[in-house]
Amino acid sequence: MNCNAGAETFSVQELMDLYAPVKEMIKARLAEFRLIWEFASEEELFQELVFCLLTPQSKAKTCWKAVQRLTCNCMIAKGEPSQVQEELVGVRFNKRKAEYICLARAVFCEKPLRSKLTEFSSPFDAREWLVDNVVGLGYKEASHFLRNIGLGEELAILDRHILKNLALLGVIDEVQGSPTKKAYLQIEKKMTKFSRQVGIPMGELDLLLWYKEAGEVFK
Q: Is 159 a catalytic residue?
């Protein structure tokens, strides 16, 4: 079960060898995400949503620093789009994403984020609602958000790094830049099947492949 992507290769055995020494670290990180859902304030949950709105085509750490600036300057709750944009230093498409943040804030004015999410019986249903109602959230971003607040460990977060490694492992035939909804769900099913075959839970597999690319476990 091995696939070439240019000169790079990555086998299932290499995956398992990578997993063994970082398994407990990855489990601990996922446990921290679960604590966010259990103990985080409404503002902290919304910060995680903002982070996931910012991440497309931008570095995760740059996006989280932007979230921290927005929080320190009280811009997440009250800032106008132009004010929010000023804090998104290093974030690509920052004007558009500032608008997304303000639109998302309006969505949860009447019913707070936590209350809304408790209405859904599964993370898959919650993801569908988020994609349909929060401008700027696609399947990848909505999955990322739900995983980061401890609700979506079985969801696939199909960014380019994950897709590349799924192709290297032979789980998918090729990397699609921006998968359609149908393609995304098909790849998710293949990744879920693969995770069961190798005995690495979905949430851990995602963080493991992210660790392979970044050398650390972040968000």
A: yes
